[in-house]
Structures are given as structure tokens and as C-alpha cells.
Amino acid sequence: MADSGVTDGYEKKGDIERAKSEGKELTKEEKQRLRKEKKQQKKSKEKKDDKVIQESGKETRGDSSAASPPQPSSQSTAQKAPSAVPPPVSVPAPEAPTPADKPAKSKAELKAERRARQEAERASKQSKKGDPGPQGAVSKSKAATNELQPVVKRLPEHIQVDNPDVLKKLAKKLERQQTPGQNSAKKIPLRLDYGYKVSLFSHLHQYSRKAPLTQQLSIPSTVIHPAIVRLGLQYSQGIVAGSNARSVALLHAFKQVIRDYTTPPNEELSRDLVNRLKPYISFLNQCRPLSASMGNAIKYVKKEISNIPSQCKEEEAKHKLLKCIECYIKDKIILAATAIAESSIEKISDGDVILIYGCSSLVNHILCEALEKNRKFRVIVVDSRPRLEGREALRRLVQRGISCTYVLISAVSYILPEVSKVFLGAHALLANGYVMSRVGTSQIALVAKAFNVPVLVCCETYKFCERVQTDSFVSNELDDPDDLIVTRNGHTQLENWQQEPSLGLLNLVYDVTPPDFVDLVITELGMIPCTSVPVVLRVKNVDQ
Amino acid sequence: MPGPDKETDLTERVEAFLSDLKRGGSGAGPLRGSAETARETTALLRKITAQARWSSAGDLMEIIRKEGRRMTAAQPSETTVGNMIRRVLKIIREEYARSRGSSEEADQQESLHKLLTSGGLCEENFRQHFAPLKANVIEAINELLTELEGTTDNISMQALEHIHSNEVIMTIGRSRTVEAFLRDAARKRKFHVIVAECAPFCQGHEMATNLSKAGIETTVIADAAIFAVMSRVNKVIIGTQTVLANGGLRAVNGTHTLALAAKHHSTPLIVCAPMFKLSPQFPNEEDTFHKFVSPHEVLPFTEGEILSKVNVHCPVFDYVPPELITLFISNIGGHAPSYIYRLMSELYHPEDHEL
């Protein structure tokens, strides 16, 4: 089988060259065959044990059973565009060149190349490590939910900053993510880290707010849509902040992109638009690392785009996509908030003293709804440096007429004996039941537990995420360390912190709360305990 | 005449000290550490002993009690003042008893046996006059002053027994005792320190700059990140404003959260507190336990209109129960929180608990 695969591959090489020179489109069957052959080539070239051969058999089976849509979705769930590392094996030459030299290359070949590169990279990684890890397809579990597929997760780049290879790959990836035909001056710049990073966090990025990525872009930049540039700037300066706000802003920007999009000749909308979105997403990721809710929204958009049938006219397709995005916002965010508010109001009784932390749009919405339904309660807003988001929540609540108290997080042990309930918002809910939220949330939950005050977390289901995490170190976001500097009585103590060699400032953005501190999670599907998150995820996957 | 001059001079000194206390507590005057306050109080008491007119120990104790009440009323949260007064009262009692020649060790404690057998006879009225009493008392107070001067050094000397290499130590706010403790250990060992800045006064910043100048790897974190970072911390070392009679603490706000986080991760919590901070108060005095400063620190006046519609609190101290504390390090060595009551009975006489 292996040998015939090799010879077949060389035949196909001839086919490819012919097709390319004629600019002809390969038919679907030819494409599939191509992919299969290449995969088998790679497999046979490495010294693998039986497990991997079985895995490759499963893959090819999966390949032939599923039509082309699973390919883009599996690629998107891998969360990474194909790396630019040329495959170490002797792949036939036409598959190696950069997209820059062949503007009119058909999408089939691009896809084939990407696939080949992915396989090669995975294979080379495996051989380097020397252990045959599970190499199964990346969550094609939609088609086969009965099997628990082993998920090959490529680690996201933003938690591997201490690995110089990964950084080099990212730089190359950014270089390549340009619309073909542009010269390299108009590529997406690589954002550099700032300041001394605490050694425990050297695997994360730390950017300075004073040096936004947009300063390094050339104007006019034809690579990135202006709506996306504006969005990136808003993210990095903190103008748009908060999980829901960021997702909604992202979706609106995508709508603008889709409206302004025209399909180039010889391309399919479903393929090309996804490729067009990739550099935008890299750009936004560099401005500020993507949140879990944004990741889920992007997955959804990419899926919808890929599901556009190829015979659909462009206007119709764009209209359909815009409608899909609007439905997503309406269902997952706005209606979900209404449903959650209804359930939460049952939990608020007259005379309650409710403690909230920071500014969560969902919790504010719940409190305003409860006020409309004439519940008598008062609110204690807890805030923390350096973001001081609680002041925003305070303003909104006071404007509605809710009686509020305001303290800093260090005074929470003083104020907690008065409190009857704690309502917290979440940034994401992880699959092991941990709640990822603004830094300080876990502390409030801890102290509330010590005083026996119930803690309720409100979270929409679109923020549920399949990652697992047990502490706040492995995956987090480091904000600008200069934010911690404060001037009191005319004296700024930490002004020259960069000159002190042994002094570091740490400005964390998120932390994880263990599920034993949380009593209840209120979602639009109902009130569930923290540990039911993987159940909800599974149910959602089956539905889709 | 030397007499009246001395007296006016004395009253002036006392008045100056009282106004200093009042100003210092509100944050407007120079912020002084507890050690300084203790030293000044003791020096002032020595002066009173030397210059005031008294004939017997009872008179002296009355004078000191009166002044003491005024001083504690000026700044109730500054407990070191009251502690020093009680120490001096105990010194007077001891010197008096020694002058009388009785073996006072047994008399000091009110044992059940004594209560039953001696009836109401043990009313000491301290009325006898002893000539060398004044000199003895002043000498004892001098000894107390020497002890006060050496407290920080005594505590720092124990640093190497508690810190091993490559440790990650967490602390909160600014404590001169802890700073000296860590700097002493840093001369011989390499370790990391994480300082929680302790908003709104952000005294942690000053602590961090001082520690980093001594060559210690320091990181400043916001208060909100205490629990997030605690999983990597090996020890928590803090200072405190007061050690209460039950072994609990009255410490800067945020300490209770720190203690709870340390308990959750089973990290030992070590309190560096010299003996003059030990106070015979219990924590259940609701109205006097907490001290508040201007809420301007928390929500500044620049916020505008909403200030009139919002309640803002800015408490300065936190209560930490003794169950969360692992060890006290003081100038006389290390103790468990359950031993504090014993130390207290050695330092203060039970009748002086209420001034």
C-alpha cells in the first residue's frame, strides 16, 4: 500500500503541474484523492508504529465520508492557520512555494498544500518528541458523537511566548497572511513585548498600551479592513471592554467586512472569505488576546461562511450571512440575557443586600430588571485597582435609582457580614467547572464562602469553552504594568520601576475560581451547578 | 523657680504629644511607626515620673493613669500608647513590691487559693513611701526603652531560621518590621517577594522599592490578584498594627483576605510583631474596633454628582481571627497564637486592663 501510494503520488504530481499551468480547477474527487495520497505519503515516510497507521486509516475514512465542509471547520477549530515551516520531507516541489508568487493559484491546490504542511508539521513534531501521541482528526465529533474522539489541540501561540520557535512561526505566519499580490511592506506587524516580565509569566505576552499595534501599520493599509483596524485600536486601548461588548463589536465589524466584500474571480465565497478573515483575526489577537466568547463567535461565523453552497449568488450569500450574524447576536446575547434575568429575579428577595464586583453587563442588566419588577434591595459595588471598572457599574446603577454602597476589594471582609448574596459575572466557564473571570472574583468568592454567603455566577452559554485550567498562571492575560503606578500626595513611588533591576509589576487580567466556591450558575438553559458545564457543551455540540 | 517651670514644661510636652497623636491618626500629620510612638510614650512617662509631684506609688499610678486616659482618648486606634502605659504601671507595681520586700511573684497572679483564703485583705493601696522608688522606677523605664530600641533587630535576627532559599514570600502593605526581617534574610539567602499593594494607600509600593533596593526580587501585585497568585507562594509574612488578647490581629485592610487565601492553600501565615504591640483588648468592641478615614481615598471628589447618592466606606483595619495564624515572631522568640494570653499576663497586670 505504501509503495503504491508513493508512485501514485508522483503521478498526481504530474497532474497537478498540468492543472496549474492550464489554470484548470480540479474536481472534487481529484482533490480528495490528492489529499489522501499525500497523507499516505507522509505516513509511510515516517517510522511509525501500528497505532498511527490505524489513525491514518480512520482519517482517510473520515475524509472520504465527510464532504469538504468539515475540512475548513476542522482547520478553524485547530485555531491556527497553517504554519509556514516547509515540510522536511521531500514533497513534490509545486506544493512548497509561497502563495506570493502564484496569484492565480486555484484554491484546491492551496488547500492541498496547507493540508500537506499541516501533516508534515505534525509528523515532524511527533518524530522530534519521539512518542506517538494520538493523531486523530481534530474534533470531527459532529458527525460521530458516539465516539469520544481524541482531540489534538495545538497550543495557542499566546501562551507560548517563552518558546522562540513559536515566535518565529508567528512572525512568518503574519508575513504570509496577506492577500496574494501585495508586497511585503503591507503585512501585519508583529507586536513586541514591553517591560520586565515576572518570571512566572514569561510564557505570556505583555504589551504596553502606549504602543498600540496600529502605530506600526502603514496607512492606507489594504490588508486589513478599516473597521477591523478601528476595532483593534478600541480593544487595545480598553475603549471596548467586557466579554459581551467585545463579541458584539467583533460581530458588527465582521458584518461590515462582509458588506464590503466582493468575491474575486475564480474564487468561491465560502473559501475566500474565510481566508480573508484570517489576517484580521491575527491582527485582533495581537491587539488584545481573543476572549473565549470571541473565539466561539468566530467559529460560528466561519462555519456559516463555509456552509454557503457554492451555487449561491454573492448578494444572496452576503445577505444570508448578515442575517446569521444578527440572529447569533439576538439569540445568544440579547435573548439569553433576558432569560437569565428572569431566572435570577426569582433569586432576589425583598430586603436583600447584593454584592457585585466590577462591571458585568449581564449582572447590571439583571439588577435593573429586578428594580423594574419592584424588588426592594440595595447593592454593594466592590471595585479594584488598577482598572476601577466598578465605578462604571456604580454610575449605571445609581442612574437607575438603586441605592448603592461602594468599597474597594481590600475592604470586602469588613462589608461582607452585611451581604445576603453575591452576584458575579463570568468571562468564560471552563470545562472542568472553573469560572474564568476578572481578577479578584475568586477572592470575593473565597471570602463569601468563609462568611457563608451564597455566590451566584451569571453566564450565557456561548461563553462556555472546552479548555480546562486549574490555576491562573498557565493561561492569562498580562495588562500594561504601568497601570499600577499611582501618584499620591504628589509623590509617585514606582515611577522609575524599570530602572530597578529586581523590581517587577504584575497586572493580571483574569483569574479562575474553583467550583467549590460557586453555589449556582445561572444560564439561559436554567440554573446549573458549576460542574455541569461539560454536559452543556456536549449537548450543544450534538445540536449543531 | 525650678518647680513650676518644670511643671509647665511637662504639661507642654504632654500637650504636644497629644496633638501629635491626634494629627498622626488622621493621616494629615507625619506618619509615624508604632515603634516611634512607643518610644515617645515611654520617654514621656519617664519624664512624668521624674518631674511630677508624687509621694507614693499610688499617687504616681494615679497620675500616669490620668495622663494615659487622655492619651488613649486622643487616638484610640493607636494602641501602643495604652500598652506602654500599662507596662509602666506594671513596672511601678513591681518596684513597689520589691521595695516592700515581699516575694511578689506569687502575689501577682490571683490564684484561686488566694481568693478563697485571704478574703478581702489583699487590697494594696500603695501608700507607703519609699525613697529609692523614684530612682528604681526610672531605671526600670530606661531598661524598657532599651528593650524597645532593640525589638526590630531581635526580630530580624530570627529571619534566617524561617526563610529558606528560593522561597516565594508574600506580604501586604508596608511594615518596617517585616522589611527589616526580609532584608536581614536577604544578606545570606536568595528568595522572591510578592508585595500586595494594599489600596487605597498603596503603601506596598514603598515597601517594594525598598526591598528591591536591597537586592531582593520583588513583584508588586494589585490586591485583587492575591488569591490568584497565592498558589505559588510558600509563606506569607505580615506585620500588624495590634495583636489582640485572643491571639487575633488588627491589621491593615486586606489582611483577612490574605489570611483566608493562605489558609485555603495551606500556606503558613507568619506575623512579625514586637511585644509592645500586644494589647489586652478583645475584638468584640464593635464601635471602637474599626477606624475609617475619608472616603475621598476610595471615590474621589472628581466623580461628581453620584457622590451624594452613594455610601462609600474606607476602613483602615481588618480583624484576622487567631485560627488563620500559624506563628508569631516577636523580639522574645516565636510563639503560637494560643500562647498569647500567657504572654499578656506576664506583661500587664489584670487590674490595668481598664485604664
TrEMBL record, chain A:
Chain segments carrying region Disordered: 1-146
Superkingdom in the source lineage: Eukaryota
GO terms of molecular function: guanyl-nucleotide exchange factor activity; translation initiation factor activity
One Pfam family here: IF-2B
Matching SUPFAM superfamilies: NagB/RpiA/CoA transferase-like
Biased amino acid composition, Pro residues: 84-97
InterPro entries given in the database record: IF-2B-related, IF_2B-like_C, NagB/RpiA_transferase-like
Localization terms from the record: Cytoplasm, Cytosol
GO cellular component: cytosol; eukaryotic translation initiation factor 2B complex
This protein's UniProt keywords: Cytoplasm, Initiation factor, Protein biosynthesis
Extent of Basic and acidic residues compositional bias: 9-32, 46-62, 102-131
Gene3D superfamilies assigned to the protein according to its UniProt record, in alphabetical order: Translation initiation factor eif-2b, domain 2
Protein's job: Acts as a component of the translation initiation factor 2B (eIF2B) complex, which catalyzes the exchange of GDP for GTP on eukaryotic initiation factor 2 (eIF2) gamma subunit. Its guanine nucleotide exchange factor activity is repressed when bound to eIF2 complex phosphorylated on the alpha subunit, thereby limiting the amount of methionyl-initiator methionine tRNA available to the ribosome and consequently global translation is repressed.
Subunit relationships: Component of the translation initiation factor 2B (eIF2B) complex which is a heterodecamer of two sets of five different subunits: alpha, beta, gamma, delta and epsilon. Subunits alpha, beta and delta comprise a regulatory subcomplex and subunits epsilon and gamma comprise a catalytic subcomplex. Within the complex, the hexameric regulatory complex resides at the center, with the two heterodimeric catalytic subcomplexes bound on opposite sides.
Family of the protein in this entry: Belongs to the eIF-2B alpha/beta/delta subunits family.
Full protein name: Translation initiation factor eIF2B subunit delta
Species this chain originates from: Poecilia reticulata (Guppy)
Taxonomic lineage from the root: Eukaryota, Metazoa, Chordata, Craniata, Vertebrata
Automatic annotation (TrEMBL), chain B:
UniProt entry tagged with the keyword Protein biosynthesis: yes
GO biological process, one term: animal organ development
Gene Ontology CC: one annotated term: cytosol
Subcellular location: Cytoplasm, Cytosol
Keyword ATP-binding: no
Source organism superkingdom: Eukaryota
Keywords: Cytoplasm, Initiation factor, Protein biosynthesis
MF terms in GO: guanyl-nucleotide exchange factor activity; translation initiation factor activity
Role according to the record: Acts as a component of the translation initiation factor 2B (eIF2B) complex, which catalyzes the exchange of GDP for GTP on eukaryotic initiation factor 2 (eIF2) gamma subunit. Its guanine nucleotide exchange factor activity is repressed when bound to eIF2 complex phosphorylated on the alpha subunit, thereby limiting the amount of methionyl-initiator methionine tRNA available to the ribosome and consequently global translation is repressed.
Assembly notes: Component of the translation initiation factor 2B (eIF2B) complex which is a heterodecamer of two sets of five different subunits: alpha, beta, gamma, delta and epsilon. Subunits alpha, beta and delta comprise a regulatory subcomplex and subunits epsilon and gamma comprise a catalytic subcomplex. Within the complex, the hexameric regulatory complex resides at the center, with the two heterodimeric catalytic subcomplexes bound on opposite sides.
Family: Belongs to the eIF-2B alpha/beta/delta subunits family.
Name of this chain's protein: Translation initiation factor eIF2B subunit beta
